[in-house]
TrEMBL record:
It comes from Candidatus Ornithocaccomicrobium faecavium. It comes from the Bacteria. SUPFAM superfamilies: Winged helix' DNA-binding domain. This is Helix-turn-helix domain-containing protein. Pfam families: HTH_20.
Length: 319
């Protein structure tokens, strides 16, 4: 049986040269004497950032930056806990042993499957709250700020949809992909926050789930405007949301990455891909943070800056 990888419960991390970016991130984290001392310190017990800085004799700001490097590599896990003077960041080592194989694992032919889904072709929708609506390249569709419009048959025509709260779920057909031999899934889409008009400083927490497993949360800075989106049709008002950011979520055998940075310890094993599945469920939604829901815009290939809908890729090896 292949060892479990990238899993803090197992306390082991197995890396191969097939995944050079992961090796590079971990090697960088281990290349500093200060970071090695931090790992040695928190091996037996959790410590907060101030305690670690005091033990190191280093500034808190420098210590925090080094902890972020270790956290991105998946070697340290941190969480906020209440303290006597407010919340404090507690750190614990998530990995005890790192194994790096310098020889790539011999496999069959490498292939990548890709499927693009228009943003309007969702299979499920729920929890939608105003401000909300959708548009295609020719006009706004249905009535603004009416969540019921998301259930109308013409939603398949949408090239842009927006909501203050809620989610949409897409069902991707894996076709002839051998899901038991997939070694990564990658999802990319253009998105931003949602408020009335636009506001470049309107934060939102946008999450992605695959097969019911939450990969993590992207903290978007705003509902972007101030210049026209490169693909927006001429009739689209300049005061509206104009463009988003292209975000890439990648899950492999070890963990989840967002735009190349480690995001969570969710790996392919936790997504439960199997050959009996007739579709892969991808849900994108708005997470409430401290009573605030910052909404989301999802851009298709006729709005925003990037000519695409939602693109799902799967890398796999033939037998």
């Amino acid at each position: 049986m292949e060892p479990r990888t990238g899993n803090p419960v197992g306390k082991e991390l197995h890396l191969r040269m097939d995944h050079m970016e992961e090796v590079r991130v971990v090697a960088h984290a281990l290349s500093s004497d200060v970071r090695l001392r931090i790992l040695a310190m928190i091996g037996a017990t959790s410590m907060n950032v101030n305690e670690i800085a005091r033990e190191l004799g280093a500034p808190v700001s420098t210590t925090a930056l080094n902890i972020q490097v270790l956290e991105r590599a998946g070697l340290v896990s941190c969480e906020m806990q209440p303290g006597t003077r407010g919340a404090m960041k507690m750190c614990v080592r998530g990995i005890d042993r790192v194994h790096i194989s310098l020889s790539p694992t011999p496999r069959g032919e490498r292939r990548v499957w890709e499927c693009e889904m228009p943003v309007g072709c969702y299979a499920l929708v729920g929890g939608v709250q105003p401000t909300c609506g959708m548009a295609n390249r020719n006009c706004k569709m249905n009535a603004d700020d009416d969540p019921r419009s998301f259930y109308r048959p013409n939603h398949f025509e949408a090239d842009l949809l927006w909501m203050r709260a809620g989610f949409v779920e897409y069902h991707f057909p894996p076709a002839d992909v051998p899901l038991n031999r997939v070694d990564f899934l990658e999802l990319s889409f253009e998105a931003c926050s949602e408020t009335l008009g636009h506001n470049n400083r309107w934060p939102s927490s946008i999450y992605v789930e695959i097969n019911g497993q939450r990969l993590g949360v992207w903290h978007c800075e705003g509902d972007f405007g101030g210049r026209r989106g490169q693909l927006n049709p001429p009739w689209w008002d300049a005061t509206n949301t104009q463009f988003g950011q292209l975000k890439t979520w990648r899950v492999d055998r070890h963990r989840t990455y967002l735009d190349g940075d480690a995001l969570s310890n969710v790996n392919l094993e936790k997504i439960h891909l199997n050959h009996e599945q007739d579709h892969i469920r991808v849900r994108i939604g708005v997470q409430e943070e401290e009573g605030h829901t910052g909404g989301m815009n999802l851009f298709g290939d006729h709005f925003g800056d990037f000519p695409q809908g939602l693109i799902l890729r799967a890398g796999y090896y033939t037998a």
